[in-house]
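Researcher: Predict the fold of Diguanylate cyclase with PAS/PAC and GAF sensors.
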Amino acid sequence: MWEFISNFLAPKSYIPHGHCYLWQTSLVWLHIVSDTLIALAYYSIPIMLIYFIQKRSDVPFRGIFILFSAFILSCGTTHLLAIWTLWYPAYWVSGSLKALTALVSIYTAIELYPLIPTAIALPSPKELESLNGELESQIRERQTAEQTVRLLNAELEKRVKQRTADLIDINQKLEQEIFERQQAESALRESKQFTEQIAHLIPNNLYIYDLVERRNIYCNRLISETLGYSLEELQQLGNSVVGLVGDHIHPADQKFVEQHLKRCLSLTPGSYLEIEYRVKDIKGKWRWLVSRDTLFERQADGKARQIIGIASDITERKEAEQNLQHINTQFAQRVQELEARTQEMIRLGDMTDFLQACLTVKEAENALGDLLKPLFPECHGAVFMIKESRNLVEVVASWGNPLNTQTVFSPDECWALRRGSVHIGEKSFPSLYCQHIHHQPSICASLCLPMMAQGETLGLLYLSFQQPEPLNPAKRKLAETVSKQIAIALANLKLRETLQHQSFRDPLTGLFNRRYLEASMIRELHRATRNNNSLGVIILDIDHFKRFNDTWGHHAGDAVIKVMGKLLQENVRESDIACRYGGEEFIIILPDASLEDTEKRAKQLQTNIKTLNVQVRDQKLESITVSMGVASFPKHGDSYELLLHRADEALYQAKQQGRDRIVCAVIPKGSSVYKTSQG
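Model: Structure tokens for Diguanylate cyclase with PAS/PAC and GAF sensors follow.
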């Protein structure tokens, strides 16, 4: 083993790399220092990347950081091997590491490619900051306009009061002061002109609406510029009961405008009502307006007759809000998708870790249903394994009900297994469904993925979808990854079981070997001590075994040992441990068996062994007899070595007394005495 490792790390069949530099000290040291510094730099970069993503848990694409770390770490290791190969030509090790580095880099590139569009599509902080700035600017402009309107309203109310006072004064003095009346009328005209000039100059749409006549009696020029209608057309609009500009109000807003006008009838001096609505301009485009209406003139019964209002065009602000909302919605969807992918990767990692922790294939198969259900909650599915005969596929795990597929079928009934690639069945193409799938109206799509590892197809991952939406490219890619991970995990478990079987089993008989006996004996003794139970041991040896080899050849001896191994396997309990101790000697460990039970089992075995009929090359061999030594814990010993020693001494006495008999070890007062039972 050491020689293999030495040849692998420092083979002598190649020339060290230092010969290429003619072993010039300065050149060699140049490469050593350069490669060492590069390796140190490569090792420090992954550490900083891992530290960064640990500290910043909100960073997306964490998996890519880890892949980059693995790639850089493997690159650093290649530089360390470059130093090693200066003196030791381990070029196979260096090449294997470079191949591993290539695989990691290719896999990193493949994983990075689909993430680029997602990362590019995310809105930048600069774009969000720009939109927020525009929105704040419009809010400030609106606040400025509202302040101007409030000042204008105050000025207007003041002048209306002044006009009323002047009219009363003129009426009282009309007959007596004609000249003063003319002067008052002149002043009134000047005031009206001044008011109209102000109304036309303010940067808002100003209007007076008559609630009784249901029409606009005044509009300034800006509202004409906003909507494109002439002042005469605007004054005629609004004859319907729905609002300021009649049928030109958006249908979705007409009900709110109608309710607004009804509330305006109850306006009191100093109060105002505000409403946002959409109006169609002369080009047919819907424009957003925000209006503030206050009382302008009352009726005789005290109800409002006319209202005066200021309307601002907020179309650009609304469009900006909608665009911002759309961007936020897209961003939220992207974040939700990334979170979903992250959760899937976490669940996939948990599933892989769990499968790697399983000790047997059966244990992994029992856990697969519960492991896969969180990964594919919106569909039903199953995992199938191909039998050793390669002619049947059988379900080993499933989730969801109904399953919509046969539980046992031939590999030829599945397109995925026949083609060796993923197969999708869709409701619109029913003839392309696999034969093992039950055709039901509830199935919209099915997905069959062959589970392949190390060039061998191990089984099938089957998914059925009730709705077509879940079967998207991301879900399909996840299913492909899951099938590969399951196949690799099951292949590793199969290999582990095979190696474990070869490690603990005798190749000729299939019984446990001496190594397994030692480990099991110690374990069973501890368990018997802890539970205060007994434990029986039988050592048996085939009588005159050498005669079988000498008379009929070694193949006859092997046949006898095989038959003995088969008989022991068929005549022991599930908890018993039957081992081939060496040559023609066998040991049986009987947990929870008393000395009397152990003797009875030994006699039964002795009787069954005598009935064996062994033939080799059409020649019937002579009858087989065995000698047995029986011992029991704790009566004959409290340790593995002492217990086997006592049983072996009893076996020796059985042979000394003529073979074909059972001898039980007895320990009276420190000396060895044996109880014999002849067969």
